[in-house]
Design goal:
single chain, alpha/beta, 6-stranded parallel β-sheet, 20% strand, 265 residues, 60s Ribosomal Protein L30, Chain: A, 4-stranded mixed β-sheet, 10 strands
């Protein structure tokens, strides 16, 4: 009877972590699958590791990285997971406590103004990791970085990139500008980013990216000190109305990291 109750409690916990409120109340989040969970084990405190006997036998060191290990049959994994193909492992991690980086205006950062699609957010975090961006500022209306779809899309990047949710992103950007940071944003009426000098490696810059449909809000946009344009090619040719926000983020970070001070022409 006790084992059955523990099983129900575990299923309920894992199910609750699909929901933002459930994650807040449990102070926990989950990663499903060998790649996703495996990349994060040892990097975040693992509250409980749920896996099949076969998976645990193939990954003996994983048991040493979790506070608790629960072996379950494959049919139980089917009941616990919402994925189409149930994974052999689910890791439940404690929610990390992250501190805002110093307002020293030194490092390249991102700021997200209501980026709501989990896939976009996950790709942005993964891109930030690749480009050496370790901190992302975000509005409370930005998607939750610990939502299962976001966690899957980051491919382990959450271990190296911290997302800081703020009640007032605009105020934080103003404070960081006052401390020496340059606030960049992409706009359709901006200056061609490939035809203007920008700080080498993007150091000391914060790149603001906006909502998928509305772009950067007026409040946050008012803090931007340099409005940039990602030009289409060739100039004047008919194109889509705008770029996907994750794609635009990747192009902008690449311009800053590898474009240096040299404008085209």
């Amino acid at each position: 009877m006790e084992q059955m109750q523990q099983g129900r409690a575990l299923r309920r916990l894992i199910a609750d972590l699909d929901d933002a409120r459930g994650r807040r109340e449990a102070r926990a989040w989950k990663a499903e699958g060998t790649k996703c969970a495996g990349d994060l084990l040892g990097l975040f405190p693992c509250r409980v590791l749920v896996a099949t006997d076969a998976w645990l036998a193939q990954h003996p060191s994983a048991s040493t990285m979790a506070g608790s290990v629960v072996a379950v049959p494959p049919r139980e994994m089917e009941r616990m997971s919402r994925l189409q193909s149930p994974p052999p492992v689910i890791a439940v991690f404690d929610m990390p406590d992250t501190e805002l980086p110093p307002r020293d205006g030194r490092n390249l950062m991102l700021a997200l103004d209501t980026v709501q699609d989990p896939g976009n957010l996950g790709t942005i975090i993964r891109t930030a990791d690749w480009m050496g961006v370790r901190h992302i500022l975000a509005t409370r209306t930005t998607a939750d970085c610990f939502a299962p779809k976001v966690v899957m899309a980051t491919m382990g990047a959450l271990a190296r990139v911290s997302v800081h949710y703020l009640d007032n992103l605009a105020a934080e950007l103003i404070a960081r500008h006052d401390a020496g940071a340059e606030i960049l944003g992409t706009f359709l009426d901006g200056t061609d980013m490939f035809a203007t000098p920008l700080p080498a490696s993007g150091d000391g810059c914060i790149v603001v990216m906006g909502n998928e449909g509305r772009g950067i809000s007026d409040e946050v946009g008012s803090t931007v000190t340099r409005r940039l344009l990602i030009p289409s090619y060739p100039p004047g040719a008919p194109t889509s109305e705008s770029l996907n926000v994750a794609t635009a983020t990747a192009i902008t970070l690449a311009r800053l990291r590898f474009g240096g001070l040299t404008p085209k022409g």
